[in-house]
Structures are given as structure tokens and as C-alpha cells.
Design brief:
By secondary structure, the protein is an all-alpha fold. It has a domain at about 50-115. The chain has four helices and no strands. The termini are far apart.
């Protein structure tokens, strides 16, 4: 029990004395010591400049993301427009086929030619008159 009390008293005494070098090694800075910088130390202006650059880059990234989203929506609209154009082209091709069939149906046949009937009538009439004159 005495040993335990003596250990506690010794640790309490040693913790009350603060050696700045010992505290810096442990990692807890003392109030009188200047701040310790590990690696590269930056001034307040450089830190503020980096912070501003980071904010600017974040803003540019957000703008790029919005532009990309806008681009994607425009691409979707273009795909829909292309699909509509393809459907419309198919409908036009069907209309052309139907109109070609109508032209074939409506177009007069060779025997419906009015000149053929006219000259055929003239020939048969003249030949009938000629043959009637030969009967005497």
C-alpha cells in the first residue's frame, strides 16, 4: 500500500513540473512556445489564397456538373427527336408506296388511249365506205 501511494505521489509531482521540450515531444504545445509546423508552413495570405482557389474550383466544378447535366438532357431530347424523325421517314416511305400503287391503279391502260380509238374509228369507217363502194 505504501508503494502504491509513493508511486502516485511521484507521478503527481512529475506531472506538475512542465518542461517545454518534454511537452513538445509529447505533442501538446505550451502557451509560451511558438506554434510548431511540420512539413511546409504557409502564411495567412497563402492559406487564404489556397482557400479562395479551392472555393473557385468548387464553383467551377458545380458549373461543369450543371453544364454536363444540361448536355445529357439535350442528348436525350436529340435521341427522342431522331426516333421521331425515323418514324416519320417510315411513314413517308409507306405513303410513297401507297401513292405508287394509286398511280398504277389510276393510270389509263393502253387500250384506253383516245387517239387509238379515234384513228381506229377513222380506219374502220373509211374501210367500210371503201368496201361499200366496191359492191357494184
Amino acid at each position: 500500500m505504501k508503494n502504491l501511494l509513493s508511486i502516485l505521489l511521484l507521478t503527481f509531482i512529475f506531472t506538475q513540473t512542465q518542461d517545454p521540450n518534454l511537452i513538445e515531444e509529447v505533442g501538446v504545445p505550451c502557451p509560451e512556445c511558438p506554434p510548431v509546423c511540420e512539413g511546409t508552413c504557409l502564411s495567412e495570405e497563402e492559406t487564404q489564397g489556397l482557400f479562395n482557389n479551392i472555393k473557385e474550383l468548387e464553383f467551377k466544378r458545380e458549373v461543369c456538373e450543371k453544364a454536363y447535366a444540361n448536355f445529357e438532357s439535350q442528348m436525350e431530347e436529340c435521341d427522342e427527336y431522331i426516333d421521331e424523325c425515323d418514324e416519320q421517314a417510315k411513314l413517308y416511305e409507306e405513303q410513297i408506296k401507297i401513292k405508287e400503287d394509286m398511280i398504277k391503279t389510276i393510270k389509263p391502260k393502253w387500250y384506253e388511249n383516245k387517239y387509238l380509238w379515234f384513228f381506229g374509228g377513222v380506219f374502220f369507217t373509211s374501210s367500210t365506205v371503201y368496201l361499200a363502194g366496191q359492191l357494184d
